[in-house]
Specification:
Elements: H1 6-17, E1 24-25, E2 51-64, E3 71-84, H2 90-104, E4 111-113, E5 117-118, E6 122-124, E7 127-140
Parallel strand pairs: 1-2
Antiparallel strand pairs: 2-3, 3-7, 4-7, 5-7, 6-7
């Protein structure tokens, strides 16, 4: 079975193109793709903390669905939300909810996103990092 993963990658890229809350890094994009050419620095501003998002894809299942070559592909969009530490968790929770809404409204023909799974935030240096796993299933035609 041969397939391409462009459908979900293009769809997710289009979803994030509408995201204006903070900078977004896609798969394999270097930090210099962000505004200013580097990752944000802690702003020490509780009302507008420094933050950014990066995402990648994990594929965990693919199978042929019919003799004509149609396939089913299951995976996750792994979204890491980076939020400046020490600003409380309300902004982080708000971003997770906004991302949930973005993905659940992002279904296209043959591609469906499901309820995201959230991981508790971890502290990495000056940043809280929260992982949002957005499961998806895509059906392809031959």
């Amino acid at each position: 079975m041969t397939t391409t993963y462009a459908t979900e990658r293009n769809t997710v890229g289009s979803l994030f193109a509408t995201w204006t809350d903070c900078p977004v890094l896609g798969p394999n994009e270097p930090d210099d793709q962000l505004p200013g050419g580097e990752l944000p620095k802690p702003a020490h501003d509780r009302t507008n903390p420094a933050r950014w998002i990066d995402y990648d894809f994990t594929y965990n299942f693919a199978e042929q669905q019919d003799m004509a070559g149609g396939a089913r592909i299951d995976g996750y969009v792994a979204v890491s939300i980076w939020m400046e530490a020490g600003v409380g968790d309300s902004k982080l929770r708000s971003m997770r909810e906004s991302l949930r809404t973005l993905f659940l409204a992002g279904d296209v023909t043959g591609l469906q996103f499901f309820e995201p799974i959230t991981e508790p935030p971890t502290l990495e240096g000056d940043w809280y990092v929260s992982l949002l796993l957005v499961p998806f299933t895509r059906f392809t035609d031959a």
